[in-house]
Write a structure and sequence with these properties.
single chain, Spore Coat Polysaccharide Biosynthesis Protein SpsA, Chain A, eight-stranded mixed sheet, 15 helices, 43% helix
Length: 373
């Protein structure tokens, strides 16, 4: 009878024949050895499958999709094939520190209240040169302090994702009792997953850089800063954020957003819905219009309902007149709307696209001159 491994490592593979050997070697050479390595290739047009088959290790299990299905489908299939107590994910172009699994398994075994552990990451280019903040604008994006689940929800609400997906080690049963990744999303399926899971679980970020995150040239990363990806990201932000507070408890909401509540001692479900709608009006960055649209939609439905309309008027002094003022103030559906931030960055990109070091210095200078509040 085959022994069940403690960890199932999953690698969704696509078109990374140049890098996948390093990814696999960083797994099979781990100091922690009780794992299976499930690789699902998404019909790579390059030599990825042959590269994978050259490895002779009984812990490696290769599956190939019958047709190209996309990264989310491939990731979900790998999770469904996993048998381990824990699941770890690695991108097919990234690398792990050789003590990664040992440190994270030991941590979860010693901290029963934590359901998933992440880590910091080092960024490199295709030549394996480490990228700093000057070279790569997002080089410190995963360098974050730990928070409670409610505090994480607040951070995600205002600042979006900051968890390194290929650093995760998570209890497999979490996926079984909650959900898999949303295949309708391309840019932010992991962000939607974290928003959902943090309503039910506790996480921890290890400060060590246990993942080497490779930044590919010419925008080849799925998260590359391209025009289509920026547009798609804004659309996915809307789709995720409109349901952000679904399944959040009143207690968790108060813990995470207490200083922004309009009625600190609210306790009814109707008041809770009103507080949620008003919370979207606290956003002040370049995508504030997305939050404003969501606020208008939610307030529209609250005003339609007789019970919540009465709560809005009695507890929040908010009436149709206030709503009409908002609908005459926010130009949300104007497709030509461009923010100053995006125009500055887009113009810099056009002139400096072949000079990444100069571009990142210019972007860093802009952020210093016009910081987020």
């Amino acid at each position: 009878m085959e022994n069940t491994p403690i960890v199932s490592v999953i690698i969704p593979s696509y078109n990374h024949a140049k890098f996948i050997s390093e990814a696999i070697e960083s797994v099979i050479n781990q100091t922690f050895t009780d794992f299976e390595l499930i690789i699902v290739d998404d019909c790579s047009p390059d030599d990825s499958v042959n590269v994978i088959r050259n490895f002779k290790d009984d812990r490696i299990k290769l599956f190939v999709n019958e047709k190209n299905e996309g990264a989310v489908y491939t990731t979900n299939r790998a999770i469904q094939l996993a048998k381990g107590e824990y699941i770890a994910l690695l991108n097919s172009d990234d690398i792990w520190d050789l003590d990664k699994l040992q440190k994270q398994v030991s941590f979860l075994k010693g901290n029963s209240r934590i359901d998933a552990v992440f880590s910091n990451a080092m960024f490199i280019n295709e030549e394996k040169k480490e990228l700093n903040k000057i070279d790569y604008f997002w080089a410190d994006v995963f360098d974050k302090e730990n928070r409670s689940s409610a505090e994480w929800l607040r951070y995600f609400f205002f600042y979006s994702n900051c968890l390194c997906h290929p650093s995760i080690l998570i209890k497999r049963e979490i996926y079984e009792r909650t959900t898999l990744y949303d295949p309708s999303l391309r840019q932010l399926p992991d962000f939607k997953m974290w928003v959902y899971l943090l309503k039910f679980i506790n996480i921890y970020i290890m400060p060590e850089k246990l993942v080497i995150f490779r930044v590919l040239a010419n925008g080849e990363n799925a998260s590359a800063d391209t025009t289509s990806n920026r547009i798609r990201t804004r659309n996915e932000i809307y789709l995720i954020m409109k349901d952000f507070f679904e399944d959040v408890t009143i207690e968790s909401f108060k813990e995470g957003f207490s200083d922004l509540l309009r009625k600190k001692d609210f306790n009814t479900n109707e008041q809770f819905l009103c507080e949620q709608a008003f919370m979207y009006l606290n956003f002040e960055t370049e995508v504030a219009y997305i939050y404003q649209l969501i606020a208008l939609e939610k307030l529209h439905h609250l005003l339609e309902n007789e019970k919540t309309r009465a709560v809005l008027e009695h507890d929040y002094s908010y009436t149709y007149r206030d709503y009409f003022k908002m609908t005459g103030q926010y130009e949300l559906l104007d497709s030509s709307q461009r923010t100053i931030t995006n125009m500055v960055i887009d113009n810099a990109r056009k002139h400096l696209e072949n000079k990444p070091g100069v571009y990142n210095r210019a972007k860093n200078l802009y952020v210093k001159l016009f910081p987020r509040k």
